[in-house]
Amino acid sequence: MGSFEDTGDNVVSVKSGRAAILNMPVIRSHPMPAVSWVADDSKALYGTKYAAVTPQASVPDATHQLVILSADSSDQKAYRAHATNTQLGKEENSAYIRVIVIPDGNSEESEIAPEIVVPPSNLTVTKGEALADLHCIANARPLHMLETTWYKDGMRLEPLDEMDGGGYGFGDPWNRTLSLLSVGLVHHGHYSCQVRLRSGGHPTAIASAYVNIIGK
Questions:
Q1: Taking CA atoms, which of 17, 21, 134, 186 is between 20 and 30 Å from 70?
Q2: CA distances (Å), 142 to each of 15, 176, 182, 193, in order?
């Protein structure tokens, strides 16, 4: 594993209530490193406000991302990626990325319509792989009223659905990551995520992707 590339001025600006997307700087590593994100105040980055995106090896030019949802003044700090090559035991820290939150003039209680900021990507997966993930990360305000549901070929998926030995799971309590478990031909098809505010009054946001399963 090498060192993180210098990306120069690392600042991300976001309007209050919107999503800030932080892209991890490039680092060469084989195998792909395990990545975690930390803030300069050591606050744990877990909960409905934060989503960490791990790229699939089959998606070209994809990178690890930290998504900060419904940004407010408390998110105005610096963040960096911590990468670990688990085979070598080598660790590297990226330069800090500073987030600046710009007031939008509205109350922090005002609603913001659902918007999918990280849609699922088309995947080609080899049959027999233990796991493949589809991400669907959406922003809205209030976040606790956000609901995400997944569909395959028009049929709604539920946690731990099993089909002919293959299965599905959700990678977090907010259904942002759909995991294809023990990948088989049954997983081949069209997937979509639908995101809405349970309070109503806004259109449902929809994004889709195609999963192609190939034999060994």
A1: 134
A2: 15, 16, 35, 19
